[in-house]
Amino acid sequence: MEYNSQREKIIIPEYGRNLQKIVEIVVKTEDRAKRTQLAHAVVDIMANIHSQVKDSPELRQRLWDHLYIVSRFRLDVDSPYPMPDREVLTKLPQKLDYPRKNMRFSYYGKNIENIITEVAKYPDGDDKSDLVKSIANHLKKSYLTWNRDSVDDELIKKHFDELSQGKLQLDSDYHFTTTNELLGTKPRKKSTKPYQPRPQHSTSKPQRKQNRPKNY
């Protein structure tokens, strides 16, 4: 018995092993006109596999690209589209250059640190005061996404002071938005009913009445 692990690797699994064998037959066909005719037929089969996608020139070009890839770029036919560049397909993408700057508090994110730096440059006034309040509430909301059990407003004020390096100050009488309002939840209602202990049931089983015969 031959296992799939012993067989030739499927180049594009979505088309299956049988279509790959058909492509191999097309590649080995000597007559160029016949080979081209078979190649068009194979593309039609591949289009049926993608029947959920609307037929378009873009889809056809993609199918021809797949046909060349399955043939390992050995297919020589009169194609309506050029053979894709093998080096471009096998070339690894460039790695993205992620910022490596250290963050004081990762759960607040780097963007909020940049915003605080810019707001600190604003001239004093009502606009700056409103921004400071909004940022402070945003810090509390971000903190709650990581720890919903408890949040200390004084701790948020301390973090805000560290992030702004003391350049932004909250009013001494400032009060944060409540946790329920930030999370969009309703506070639990306290029960007003007095506590009543449950009645204790006897654990002893009641005695069954004996069925005595009549005229006993």
What do you see in this structure?
The chain has 216 residues and is an all-alpha fold. The protein folds into two domains: 7-90; 110-183, no CATH class. It is 45% helix and 0% strand. The chain contains eight helices and no strands. It has helices at residues 16-28, 32-49, 57-70, 86-90, 110-119, 126-146, 153-163, 179-183. The longest helix is centred in the middle third of the chain and has 21 residues, at 126-146. The protein is elongated, with a radius of gyration of 37 Å.
Count all strands and give the number.
0
Order of helices and strands: HHHHHHHH
Q: Count up the helices.
A: 8
List segments where confidence is low: pLDDT < 50 over at least 5 consecutive residues: none
Percent helix, as a range, is 40-55%
Shape: elongated
Total of domains = 2
Strand proportion: under 5%
What's the gyration radius in Å? Answer: 37 Å
Q: What distance separates the N and C termini? A: 85 Å
Mean pLDDT: 83
At a glance:
The chain is 45% helix and 0% strand. With 216 residues, the protein is mostly helical.
Core attributes:
216 residues; mainly alpha; 8 helices; 0% strand
Q: Secondary-structure blueprint of this entry?
A:
Elements: H1 16-28, H2 32-49, H3 57-70, H4 86-90, H5 110-119, H6 126-146, H7 153-163, H8 179-183
Helix pairs in contact: 1-2, 2-3, 6-7
